[in-house]
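Data card: per-record layout.
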Amino acid sequence: MPYLSRTLHGLCARPWLRALLLPCLLLTLGATSAGASVDPLSALQPDDGQLLDQRGPAPAERLYPLGPLRRIGGALRMEARLQVRGELASATWELPAERSASAAFKVAREALRAADTQVLFWCEGRDCGESNLWANDILGNTRLLGSDDQQGFLLVRQAQGATDRLVAVYGVLRGNRRVALHVETFVPETPLGPVLPTSGTLLRELRDAGQLSFPDLATPPAADWASVLARTLNLDSTLRLRLNGEGAEQWQAALVAAGVRATRLSLGEQAGEGLRMEIIR
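The structure for this 281-residue chain is written out next.
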């Protein structure tokens, strides 16, 4: 697989193929076991990007926001957070002028999509808060200072056998009008335990893919999951959804009890493990 990865990267680096950089990155990552066993720092490395900064792996403590960043009264504010100790490695690249922040961020986000990957937080633009707080207070890298409305952050959790790995991606349009792409991996020294995604993140995923799949959600419905899913659906009351899976009827009742209007939910195929939600178009 390393040979395949190097070959694909070499092809993408040729000038006449640079326009194909984004699909090549996706192919490189997807060709090696759907993401979990791939090192994101090498898999997401843009071939025509300039390396600005590389650190680790080294022991570190990290605070990952699970909500937009604000500074109020001199204190850093966020809706929720994930604070961990473990081993951190990171790399930051600057992309050519023709690259856009949204396109570079989308490539990284889609390349990290896999069955054993859970998105914990995803924001874009001003929904992320202030770029200077991400650069200075969270990621500790002044090269990531940029535009509040041209930024994106993604935090995913990847299953690694008995352990986990966190992968964070931050893309931003810098003051020099070039995009910086920052990728870091974090291996916690102790198990993370249950961490639920934010309701805003789930809504972004639902709108983006048209569906959400939770193969590990059992019945009877867990109260914490019913609560976060109900908050997700109530962020956009225009959405109507079909629920699938063996426990779909029980999940429908739990979501209604948590405040979702019953007329917005219908039952589909009641077979298969977990819960599957799809938008009715």
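Known properties of this structure: The two ends are 40 Å apart (CA to CA). Residues 1-36 have pLDDT under 50 and may be disordered.

See the next section for split statistics.
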